[in-house]
Amino acid sequence: MTLAAVKPIYWQVNTQVGDQVPDTREILMDTAERSIRLGGYNAVSFRELADALGIKSASVHYYFRKKEDLGVALVDRYSQRFFAVLEKRADGARTAEALLDAYCQTYRTALTSSDAICLCGMLGAETSGLPDAVSSAVRTFFRANLEWLVDAMPKGLDPAAKTARASHVLAALQGAMMLSHNMDDISVFDAAAEVVKAGL
Amino acid sequence: MTLAAVKPIYWQVNTQVGDQVPDTREILMDTAERSIRLGGYNAVSFRELADALGIKSASVHYYFRKKEDLGVALVDRYSQRFFAVLEKRADGARTAEALLDAYCQTYRTALTSSDAICLCGMLGAETSGLPDAVSSAVRTFFRANLEWLVDAMPKGLDPAAKTARASHVLAALQGAMMLSHNMDDISVFDAAAEVVKAGL
DNA sequence: GTCTATAATTTGATAGAC
DNA sequence: GTCTATCAAATTATAGAC
C-alpha cells in the first residue's frame, strides 16, 4: 500500500459506508470547527487543515483567503444550524417551560454529539484576541440567543425580568458546557440545566 | 533620552508612584495572566513577555523552563488568591445567602478589576488543547470551587441537591463572565448573578 | 540574572504553473 | 482546484558567555 492510498484523517474518523461526499469547503469547515471547539481559534492552522484532507495549505487559501474569513464563515454556519435545530425542536412548544426545555436540549446535543463545547462559547471567551470580524459575528450569535430567550419567557413577566432571566439562561448553559467538558462529566451539564429549568 | 530610558510597558500601565517593586518573576506572571485572560493560552509568547519587561526571551526561560511551567504556576497562584479573597469576604457570613453573595462578589470583582474573564474560565474552555499539567490544575480549581459551594449550601438540602446547585452556580458565573465580557456589558453578569442568588 | 546566538519548527500568506 | 515554491515572521527552546 502506498502512502497515497491512506485516506486523509477526516475520512477515517467522520465517515461511514454510504455517506454522501461533502465538498472540500464543507470538510474544511467541519475539521476547523472541531479543532476550534476543542482548543480555540489558534488551535487551527491552514497546514493541519490541509493535512487532514490530504491537500496542501495553499489550496486551503483558495477557499478562505485569510484565516479571518474562515472564522467568520464558521460562526455564520454554526449560527444558522443552531437556530434551525432550535426552531425544529421548539416547533410544537406552547408553554414557556417547553420552549426552555427545547433550548436546553439544543445545547445539550451540541455538547454530546461533538464532545466539544459550543463554537461561540470558545470564541466568546477568546474574543479579545480575535480579529474584529470574528468576535463581531460571535456577538451577533449571542444577541440572537438572548432575543430568542426573551421571546420564550412567560408572558406575565415584565421586560426587565425577561432580559435578566434570558441572560442567566444563556450564561448558565454556556458555563455548563465548559465546566462539563472540562470535568468530563455530563451530569454537571444536566444538573445546571435542571436548576435553570426549575427556576422558571 | 536613550531607548534604554524608556520604561517597559508593564510599568507604564500598572504602576504608580510609591508602588513596591515586584520581582521579575511576579511581573512576568502578571503580564502573562492578563494576556491569557484576554486572548487565551496561545496569546502569550515568551518574546512578548520579555518585551513587556524590557528583557530578552531567554531570560524568561530562566524563570519558567517551559511554557507549561508558566501555565501551571499561573493557575496555582490564581487559585490561591481566589480562595484567599473568597475566605476573607465570606468571613462573617452566617447564612447560605450571605455565603453565596460573597461567592458571587468574588467573581464579579475578578471580572471588573481586570476587565477580563477568569483565568480558569479561559483555560477551562481551551482545556483539550493544553498541556496535561495545565488542564489538570484547572480541573483542581473547579473541583475546589464545587466543594466550597456544596459546603455553603443550606443545611436542609440533601447531598444530591447540593451538588446540583453547586454545579449550577459555578457554571452560571463562569458563563456570565464570558458573556458579559464578550458583550461588554456588566449588567449581563449582574442579571445572571441575581437570578443565581434568587434561586437559592 | 541577563545576555547573545542560534536551532528547529510552525504559521499565515502569496505568486504563478498546470 | 490543486500544486510547487517560497517568504517573512513568530514561536519554543537550548547552549554557553558575562
Task: Tell me what you see in this structure.
Chain A has 200 residues and is mainly alpha-helical. The termini of chain A are far apart. Chain A is elongated. Chain A has one domain: Orthogonal Bundle (Tetracycline Repressor, domain 2), CATH 1.10.357. The N terminus of chain A is likely disordered. Helices cover 72% and strands 0% of the residues of chain A.
List the SSEs and their pairings.
Two copies of one chain form a homodimer.
Chain A: H1 9-14, H2 24-39, H3 46-53, H4 57-63, H5 67-89, H6 96-114, H7 119-125, H8 132-152, H9 159-183, H10 186-198
Helix pairs in contact in A: 2-3, 2-7, 3-4, 5-6, 5-8, 6-9, 6-10, 8-9, 9-10
The structure holds a DNA duplex (18 and 18 nucleotides).
Write the H/E string of chain A, N to C: HHHHHHHHHH
Label the overall shape of chain A: elongated
Strand content of chain A: under 5%
Count of the separate structural domains of chain A: 1
User: Helix count of chain A?
Assistant: 10
**The CATH class of chain A:** Mainly Alpha
Could you tell me the number of beta strands of chain A? 0
| Distance N to C terminus of chain A | 60 Å
By secondary-structure content and strand pairing, the structural class of chain A works out as mainly alpha
Query: What would CATH call the architecture of chain A?
Result: Orthogonal Bundle
Instruction: Specify which chain pair forms the largest interface.
Output: A-B, 49 and 49 residues
Q: Can you tell me the residue ranges of chain A where pLDDT is under 50 for at least 5 consecutive residues?
A: 1-5
Indicate the CATH topology of chain A: Tetracycline Repressor, domain 2
Q: What is the name of the CATH superfamily of chain A?
A: Tetracycline Repressor, domain 2
